[in-house]
Amino acid sequence: MKRHGFSLLELLVVIAILAILVGIVLPGLQIAKQRGRTLVCESNVRQISLALSIYEQEHGTFPHGFDASPLPGSVPPGDCPGTVARDFQGWWWFHSLPEMAEASLKPGSVLWCPSRDVEDPYILCGNYGVNRAICRDSWASMSSEFKGKPMSLAQMRSPSLTLLVTDSGYSLISWRGAAREVDPVYENSKREGDFYVPGLSINKDRNISPGSRKDAIDGRHLHMMINVGFSDGHVDRLKADKLALSDSQTVSGDYASLWSPR
User: Fold this and answer.
1) Most CB contacts within 10 A, which of 87, 98, 105, 132?
2) Alpha-carbon distance values, 180 to 95, 121, 171 (Å)
3) For residues 153 and 160, what is the distance between their CA atoms, to the nearest angstrom?
4) What is the Cα–Cα distance from 32 to 61, expressed in whole angstroms?
5) What residue segments make up the domains of the chain, in order of their start?
């Protein structure tokens, strides 16, 4: 009986067709996965913005960005985040939010950006940061620019135009992380390379931590977009460069429309 089968040429043709199909399908799947992560990130920012808004309504101001110790000897839920060698130990803005329970400090939770690409395993790096001009610090060792009582909505003329929380290299972010300065001043020199907005064009010329360079330079979302929560509670997706400062803009001038509470 004569046996029927594929010739070598036919097999090569089939393999070539499959390779072409894989080449066509895989990029589409990767883009779909990126878009999915972006939507999850947007949902995270929306939940964080809502929690911050509820706190402001109940307390009359937004929470401190960092508080050395609101209660002497007290330890925040889940212990102090970060590492003693590089981070200030105390209470951070997310500890003030009842909605952000201890479980939320772990990977995969609302406080973790699904598109983060950093080697640092701590929640303080590569997730979301609050605007320090609003969520000011209570610690005397911090810069006077960001020290004092946090702001309230009543103090802002246009909260819908004022950045509150965004994709960030560190849990605290300010205009300094978006400035093209030769020697920007940061209170914590050990974390200087983690103060950035992912995807900013100027990041390639800044001093970024080696484990965060890909996150900072390549960005997290398609087309160098970031998710931003505003002080009035709404969330938008913007080009990262929208948050950058021009060479002529400084903290004392008419700098980046989103950083200055107005």
Assistant:
1) 132
2) 32, 27, 20
3) 10
4) 39
5) 9-243
Q: How far apart are the C-alpha atoms of 3 and 65, rounded to whole Å?
A: 76
Report the amino acid identity of residue 5. G
pLDDT, position 78? 75
- Digit-coded pLDDT (tens) for 180-231: 765 567 778 889 899 999 999 999 988 899 999 999 999 999 999 999 999 9
**pTM (2 decimals)?**
0.84
**Contacts of residue 147, Cβ cutoff 8 Å, sequence gap at least 6:** 136, 137, 138, 139, 140
What's the token pair of residue 177? Answer: 């992380």
Query: For residue 189, is it left (φ>0), alpha (ψ between -120 and 50) or beta?
Result: alpha
> Which residue do the tokens 């320090």 mark?
132
| 169's tokens | 């290299």
